[in-house]
Amino acid sequence: MQPDPVVHLIDDDEAVRQSLAFLLTSAGFAIRTYASATAFLDALVAVQPGCVVTDVRMPGLSGLDLQRELISRRIGLPVIVMTGHGDVKLAVEAMKAGAVDFIEKPFQDETMISAIRTAFDRYARDARHSDEANAVEARLNALTVREREVLDGLLAGRPNKTIAYDLSISARTVEVHRANLMTKMGAASLSELVRMVLLSRTPGV
Q1: Which of these, 159, 167, 165, 156, lies nearest to 194 by C-alpha position?
Q2: Residue 137 lies in a domain
Q3: Where are residues bearing 4-aspartylphosphate located in the sequence (predicted)?
């Protein structure tokens, strides 16, 4: 059973942290607070799944710097950035880099709550996607060398006869390998097989 998602709140302003933590706790969210992006990264090994809510402009690492660091470490926590007046350009950069949302201060309580729910939904969807991709990768690794060669031919759109010619085997042997790899992959059709392989090769999964 997956643990409940946590909002990781990062802001160098203690008053903002306390106020926002009170709001989100009252709304039923589990909260962890950090005074800087560096403090959050230092705790990353023990960080629970959920989302990140961070101020975009902070001493040291900015919210955008933090987002880039999470991407480089392949940490799939959705990010919401908070921005003050004059920081919208930075927030737009964060959105282009994959942030779920940016919220301008001061904001309505429901605006933040709604953004966090959206972030949690994305996290759950990405987690399911990652689990499925890992399962597909395990099936691919169970294929024999010849089955992988036949698969590569199918993915390239080649008919069985062409694959047979390329591999110097009979068309009947290609059919056997094709049937075996379809069974191993759990694919009911060629289109489903292609979708599986594309899923396993999706960047960031």
Answers
A1: 156
A2: no
A3: 55
Contact 150, 141 (CB under 8 A): no
Q: What is the pTM of this model?
A: 0.64
Phi, psi of 42 (to 5 degrees): -65, -30
d(CA 32, CA 39): 11
My answer on whether 158 and 124 are in the same domain is no
How many domains does the chain divide into? 2
Dmax (CA) for the chain in angstroms is 74
Instruction: Assign 3-state DSSP to the chain and report helix, strand, coil percentages, each to 5.
Output: 60, 10, 30
* 1-58 confidence digits (pLDDT tens): 456 789 999 999 999 999 999 999 999 999 999 999 999 999 987 778 899 999 988 9
Domain membership of residue 120 as a residue range? 6-128
